[in-house]
Amino acid sequence: MNPPLSSRVTRAGGHIVVTGGCGFIGCNIADALASRGRRVVVFDSMLREGAGHNARWLVERHRDRIEVVRGDVGSYAKLQRVVAGAEAIFHLAAQVAVTTSMIAPEEDFRTNAAGTLNVLECVRRCNPDAAVLFASTNKVYGRLVSDDEVARSGQRYVPLAPSLSAGVSETTALDLHSPYGCSKGAADQYVHDYARVFGLRTVVMRMSCIYGPRQFGTEDQGWVAHFLIRAIQGAPITIYGDGYQVRDVLFIEDAVDAWLRALDRIDDTKGCIFNLGGGQGNSISLREMLALIGEIRGAVPDVRFAPWRPGDQPWYVSDVRSISGAVGWSPRTSARAGVRALERWLAAQYDQPSRVPVQAEARA
């Protein structure tokens, strides 16, 4: 069942658009904006699992501050209607899985690259003063390091290059790998270039692993939530690779804080590209995450191993010093505290008992 729609927001103008606003990150951004008293148009195809659930949650919480418009970023006419008069566009609508891009690369390109160009052209032609904040990905850097450029240290890989001691910076060369990496990389560069050549107020966020409540993770995307869901259900977890691969994880509240700070300081951040993740302090290997879930749940998850997938990175950690310096931001939530908070939320969704005490803190 689709949520009720309101026409008050777009008629009045001065609203903020969130494409993909019924997805995990999008709905949390929309919620934060509406909680500030802003009027928000959520533009979403409503095709992903959990989209309807998130849409109803937004409307129930914020009523007339939220308008949900069902639409595809491939539709220029429909985009134009919601972009006209908007103060800002958070562009998160995307095809999000490497595996899906391997099966249907044309559809992946249509959504990620062509859809982003549609958003930019709508803004350029009818609302050039609007800010555009774009959700890119760390996958634009490709595999980044080869097998002989990492070493095992305990339960994780570490890079051998001293230049990576603080993580991957925005000056790292792009190495687009997989159709997904290519489509998101093309979109990433279009967004950046429209700031340079057309003067649009754009910001690119190259995100690492964002996790937290309202994430219905799958094997292809949202791995932290997926691991927890499988553990809650007592189902086996498949690890692609050996499990020593490392990611930096960022709790959703901290991610939303960074996005909103980038908008608040748009005169300073326009034209910028930022890596957004948990940084070195929140880096964790898949094996370490499984151990943490076992500690939280009181039982070690059942794990199976499968071959590496195309574009899988043995190590990726964001260097977040650029965004920290630009907007005065830093991650506040530890991986341990964030995973505990997500476990409680997911256990409630799947009607299973949480192993985490209610009073456990989500901050650390």
Task: Give a short overview.
The protein is of the alpha/beta class and 364 residues long.
Instruction: Indicate the low-confidence ranges by residue numbers.
Output: 1-8, 358-364
Question: SSE string, helix = H, strand = E?
Answer: HEHEHEHEHHEEEHEEHEEHHEEHEHH
Counted up, domains total 1
Q: What is the CATH class designation?
A: Alpha Beta
- The share of residues in extended strands comes to 15-25%
Give a written overview of the molecule:
With 364 residues, this protein is an alpha/beta fold. It has a single domain (94-349), classed as Rossmann fold. It is built from 13 helices and 14 strands. The strands form four sheets. A seven-stranded parallel beta sheet has the order 3-2-1-4-5-8-12, sandwiched between helices. The chain has a three-stranded mixed beta sheet with strand order 9-11-13. Strands 6-7 form a two-stranded antiparallel sheet. Strand 6 (150-153) and strand 7 form a beta hairpin. Helix 2 (24-35) runs parallel beside helix 3 (51-62).
Task: Describe the SSE topology.
Layout: H1 8-12, E1 16-19, H2 24-35, E2 40-44, H3 51-62, E3 66-70, H4 76-83, E4 88-91, H5 98-103, H6 105-126, E5 131-137, E6 150-153, E7 156-159, H7 178-198, E8 201-207, E9 209-211, H8 223-233, E10 237-240, E11 246-251, H9 252-264, H10 266-269, E12 272-276, E13 283-285, H11 286-297, E14 303-306, H12 321-327, H13 335-349
Parallel strand pairs: 1-2, 1-4, 2-3, 4-5, 5-8, 8-12, 9-11, 10-14
Antiparallel strand pairs: 6-7, 11-13
